[in-house]
């Protein structure tokens, strides 16, 4: 009888969340930021609004990309944003909603663009940095001159960019549209870095996703709330993913 009353109460008063989710992301101003200890930014605003619509609670945390990605792959009740939806990742997550589109490129300092192009044409080796578990990793073998690249993996995009700015590597892989925000800490404008090579097959979509072991009921609730709020919008005016 008691179990029947509980079941009746849940059906009468609505869905009951077993425990809060953890929503993880990585620093990428102005889309994902940490301001006075609070995870903020335009992408975060979209996710918070979604959670309110769905009646779901979550604790927000910001980590280097490699750690955020590992948490979302290995633990239940984890949301991650903004993550590229790629063929390799398709079965590893429950995909909630599309935030934006993006395309990647190999980026170098503008002053080195001509010399590095010449180095590639002369079959000389170049060094390249990007975060571990970045969406570009499985695409690297498709790069022209891939056999000439020495690849260094970092914990975050910021760390890779620091290696480039400090002359420790020749290039990084990132979305060129992010350059104004990425270069702001160095007091540089976006023309300080230029595209050396596009990354073939890198055009994809950025998503909010849930870890594979998150309750299907929770994931479906979030997907339904996403459709109510955002429908089939092409863009949410949000930031590119990792």
TrEMBL record:
<protein>
    <submittedName>
        <fullName>Amino acid ABC transporter substrate-binding protein, PAAT family</fullName>
    </submittedName>
</protein>
<keyword id="KW-0732">Signal</keyword>
<dbReference type="InterPro" id="IPR001638">
    <property type="entry name" value="Solute-binding_3/MltF_N"/>
</dbReference>
<feature type="signal peptide">
    <location>
        <begin position="1"/>
        <end position="18"/>
    </location>
</feature>
<feature type="domain" description="Solute-binding protein family 3/N-terminal">
    <location>
        <begin position="26"/>
        <end position="230"/>
    </location>
</feature>
<dbReference type="Pfam" id="PF00497">
    <property type="entry name" value="SBP_bac_3"/>
</dbReference>
């Amino acid at each position: 009888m008691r179990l029947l009353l509980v079941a009746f109460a849940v059906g009468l008063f609505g869905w009951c969340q077993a425990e809060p989710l953890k929503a993880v992301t990585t620093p990428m101003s102005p889309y994902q930021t940490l301001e006075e200890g609070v995870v903020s930014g335009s992408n975060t605003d979209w996710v918070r609004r979604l959670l309110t619509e769905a009646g779901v609670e979550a604790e927000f945390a910001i980590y280097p990309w490699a750690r955020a990605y590992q948490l979302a792959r290995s633990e239940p009740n984890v949301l991650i944003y903004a993550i590229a939806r790629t063929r390799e990742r398709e079965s590893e997550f429950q995909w909630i909603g599309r935030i934006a589109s993006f395309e990647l490129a190999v980026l170098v300092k503008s002053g080195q663009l001509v010399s590095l192009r010449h180095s590639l044409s002369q079959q000389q080796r170049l060094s390249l940095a990007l975060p571990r578990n970045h969406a570009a990793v499985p695409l690297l073998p498709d790069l022209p001159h891939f056999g000439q690249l020495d690849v260094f993996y970092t914990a975050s995009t910021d760390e890779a960019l620091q290696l480039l700015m400090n002359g420790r590597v020749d290039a990084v892989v990132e979305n060129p549209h992010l350059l104004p925000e990425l270069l702001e800490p160095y007091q540089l404008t976006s023309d300080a870095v230029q595209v050396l090579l596009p990354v073939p097959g890198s055009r994809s979509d950025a998503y909010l996703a849930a870890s594979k072991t998150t309750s299907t009921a929770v994931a479906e609730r979030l997907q339904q709330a996403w459709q109510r709020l955002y429908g089939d919008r092409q863009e949410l005016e949000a930031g590119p993913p990792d």
